[in-house]
Amino acid sequence: MSSVEKLLAARWARRRFLTVTGAAAGLALATGLPVAATPADQRIRGYPFTLGIASGDPLPDGVVIWTRLAPEPLEPFGGMEYGKKVPVRWEVAEDEAFRRVVRRGTAFALSEYAHTVHVDVRGLRPSAEYFYRFMAGSDISPVGRTKTAPALGAAISNLNFAFVSCQHRVVGYYTAYQHMVQEDLDVVFHLGDYIYEGGDQGTLGRGHFPARTLATLDDFRLRLAQYKTDPDLQAAHAAFPWIVTLDDHEVLSNWVSKYSFYYPQESFEQFLVRRANAFRAYWEHMPLRLAQLPQGPDMPLYRRFAFGDLAEFNVLDTRQYRDDQLYNDGTAPPDALTRDPARQMIGAQQEQWLFDGLRKSGATWNVLAQQVFFSQLDLDPNDAGERYVMDAWDGYEAQRNRIVDFFHDRNIANPVVLTGDVHANNACEIKKNFDDSDSATVGVELVGTSISSSGDGADTDPGRDALASQLPHIKYYNVQRGYVRCEVTPEQWRTDFKVVPYVSRPGAPIRTDATLVTENGRPGLELG
């Protein structure tokens, strides 16, 4: 066993199914799984599944399952030989003992894609739980659990999911994931900042590798592999299907379109090469379909998921298509530039795609899963001049207003916006006119805190608490780390903000800091 594998095996204790390497191998032996001979030139030196397994993008009839062969994950090519093509067998079963296998096949792990494997498994039943695993030679991966989406238009009584973001490994442990895997969830949404791109080392012994700001394809592959060695993150991937979208730190802090604020000396062409490298490595390491495979610096990431007649999720991309931030990416008062109708956060094509989907939706709840703060956030509400963050939707006010107006004018059923990015929990009422607290509430925004980014945080923050108290559309605020759990029924949307008191050391307990409820047909938030 490598040192990484020993660490993972020691901590992969799963609640409902086996993920310890030795146990998985024992299970395979007990069920009579055939072990095919592997040609000598295809044998792998060391256990190849050190980065775990994952599933994602569930549909009524299928799901993507993922793994990567990397016996030495922090070496170039993961310790694999470049040019080596390795057959990887996979199985999907109705039971964790794999006695009722429903789908199986062989995929090839290619060095061109860092020996990652993406299998788009189809022909599955809707709303069904499945287990999956991979085999390379005589080695067997951990076992994962996944679940398909309900049938299109089916009457659904409930949906349980969590959303997360911002997992800066240098400043904290991923303790929140230890607690999340104990939940009974249908799906998890990751809203961005899966990795951080800098070379910082921190003080916890969780420093970044390589110790430099990422630029090359090898850099991004190594960083993603390093993050994926975390056993708590691996356990969370193994427990549930994930739906992912990226924000800025998967590429470079506060990047937009062709612009990079922190490397002003870098030309547009140079930045697009960096972006292409980041996108390629991101796709390789996520349970994404071939449809999301980047073409150079472009990755078609926005997409839509329906969960029966209950909820439809529009997963947005607020980075690739937006105009340059104003005023050097800082804060500024609203003016003719921030309110310019031509300014785009998501681009005209994605906006039209969003409106077309909302117009056709028959779901009870219509959701935008996206990255940055959507509601108005005046950082100095006592100052007549006002001050807004240019990286958030406040810097793209006209497009936000078009979306809010669409919610209102088209009578879209129960709009809900899910947000990450800001390392704080917020619950906001979306107003028809944010400058008028008496204007109609058209939906709600739920902002989730980080998994670890910004360190321990605090239960209260006098400055931000005072700010929130002066903004009547913000109904809840907290700056601890954690995740957000949502229970959705035809009658109501219940949101539990789950927080841990610290991430600077392992073992933190978790608690529900607040519960807020939105009733069907009554936009707004009430304490549960």
Q: Would you mind describing this structure in some detail?
A:
By secondary structure, the chain is of the alpha+beta class. The chain has a single domain (149-527), classed as Purple Acid Phosphatase, chain A, domain 2. The chain is 19% helix and 28% strand. It has 9 helices and 24 strands. It has helices spanning 3-11, 21-30, 175-180, 217-228, 231-239, 268-285, 348-360, 397-409, 462-469; strands spanning 53-59, 62-68, 85-93, 101-110, 116-121, 129-136, 139-140, 144-147, 159-164, 187-190, 241-244, 303-307, 311-315, 331-332, 365-369, 388-389, 415-419, 425-431, 441-447, 457-458, 474-488, 492-500, 511-519, 522-527. The protein has a 17-stranded mixed beta sheet that branches. Strands 3, 4, 6, 7 and 8 form a 5-stranded antiparallel beta sheet that branches. The protein has a two-stranded antiparallel ribbon with strand order 14-16. Strand 21 and strand 22 (492-500) form a beta hairpin.
Topology:
Elements lengths: L2 H9 L9 H10 L22 E7 L2 E7 L16 E9 L7 E10 L5 E6 L7 E8 L2 E2 L3 E4 L11 E6 L10 H6 L6 E4 L26 H12 L2 H9 L1 E4 L23 H18 L17 E5 L3 E5 L15 E2 L15 H13 L4 E5 L18 E2 L7 H13 L5 E5 L5 E7 L9 E7 L9 E2 L3 H8 L4 E15 L3 E9 L10 E9 L2 E6 L1
Parallel strand pairs: 1-11, 9-10, 10-11, 13-15, 15-17, 17-19
Antiparallel strand pairs: 1-2, 2-5, 3-4, 3-6, 6-7, 6-8, 9-21, 12-13, 14-16, 18-19, 18-21, 20-21, 21-22, 22-23, 23-24
Helix pairs in contact: 4-6
